[in-house]
């Protein structure tokens, strides 16, 4: 038997994405967002959903580009700060001591110290109630050189995930099976 929780914004895992875009004066800004994920294979696309009230929403609408920096566990404080401070009021890079890096591929900044970056051109935006979903075509993915030859990037990057039910951040646990493989034994039954 299952107990109803009602219509809530809960799913697992929920990513911690740090979304970067330039403002109208060319200043780099980032914000933390949890509503997002891969939405298409060909062309490779990722979607994020932002409220119109955010500074980043307007920056993406103007620049037609954004990045997603994936913070590691060691940057949990900075990732949280990026979600609670507004780029209208403060330079978040100066406040955290982290470095804005200009993408060579799209017109958007990313966080230099974060180990994984997705660079996107805005393909489409769709208003959905309180949020607008931005669909970005992935133009490049970058990873720290020290991880480039690793078989399991997730174990090296140690990305954060967000738990919407208790408003907390978590790390990722151990691998429990190989995709498209571990379930094959059930074919024999």
From TrEMBL:
Source species, domain of life: Archaea
InterPro entries: Flavin_Rdtase-like_dom, Flavoredoxin, Split_barrel_FMN-bd
Cofactor(s) demanded: FMN
Gene3D superfamilies found in the cross-reference section: Electron Transport, Fmn-binding Protein, Chain A (2.30.110.10)
Keywords: Flavoprotein
GO molecular function: FMN binding
Residues in Flavin reductase like domain copies: 9-162
Family the UniProt entry places it in: Belongs to the flavoredoxin family.
Protein name per its UniProtKB record: Flavin reductase like domain-containing protein
Organism for this UniProt entry: Methanobacterium formicicum (strain DSM 3637 / PP1)
